[in-house]
Task: structure prediction
Amino acid sequence: MKHSILIILLTFATNGFLSAESVSSKAYKKRIELLTYLRELEPMIKNFRGEDAEGKPTALNAPEGKEGFRLKKYNELRRIYQEGLQYYFEGNFNSAYQRFLECQVGVEKVTEELSQLYVLRAEEMMKVAMEKKNPANPLDKALLDVSIEYGKGSYFRHDVLDQAREAPFSRRMYDPKEVHYVYNKYDIEKNMELGYKHLGLAKEARITALKVEKNLEKHQKLQPSHRKYRIENYFAAINLCRDSKANAINIYKLKYPYDNYYLNNSQGKSEARIDETGKPVEGEPVKVDGVTYDFSKNPYIKFDNRLQAMFDVRVPEEYRVDHADLRGRVYDIDSENMVFFKYDQERKKQLNVPNKPATGSTATP
Result:
């Protein structure tokens, strides 16, 4: 009997020993995991760098001590991760694993704060997209106006579009630039629906992450596996907010298809229009990152879905950084390269492209 019990105990002990994961293996997995997180965070942090110690907006390449608070934290995480790598390749796996765990704690704090920022900005973008962008323009419509005035059975559709007209004997009784509201009505409303659906899921993911610590027993402490779960939920919230922002941007694109007219004329001006009194209103020069020139000759202009965020003035200026971010692009880098020809000085001279203003785009929410 005693012999049998001894065999059973030895069996359990052996199984426990065999199932225990070595520190080197845990360090290897954590190294790959954190590298993935840092790579995914980089464009987000560079787009939303935060203010400096004095509460002022910061440039992307600001000197040390003047960088935004998020960028400063991110650089510190990179330093800790690099120390862990040095220990790892030296074969000091215990020290490496400790550094990686320290980096993981920092990533958790950064993603928690960043996910809150994304939720707030996505919510703001959806609300603003539903309203008029330019109240002075009589053809600008809020989303509710589109639903009421251009839906099935509405005056515009029933008494205007659905009536056969013999041109030129019968005069058109509507502005042709209103017709796009009819064709885009369903897509505009669907993007509103999906935008708020994604926003709601993002909030749920963030709440799920925040509740992890509350759901632990009194004697339990947060383990690396718990932190990993929280980080992944924060990233899920961020990506869902990006989807919500994409829906808001789609609403802008559907509501204002004529705003990018400046790309097709040599003066870089917006399109002329007729105001409510019937008087013509001249187009105004469009500024991109504070400058205007003949954008029609810019070789980096690509239209349709390939149009880079800084050139798409259908989207309000304060949200173009979000437009770039949801594609994984860094707005300031794209602007330097595609608006100011940082690496193509000859073409810059040919097109008479001005230098970037000292008070350029440095908005860092």
Summary: The chain has a mean pLDDT of 89. The beta strands are 273-274, 280-281. The chain is about 55% helix and 0% strand.
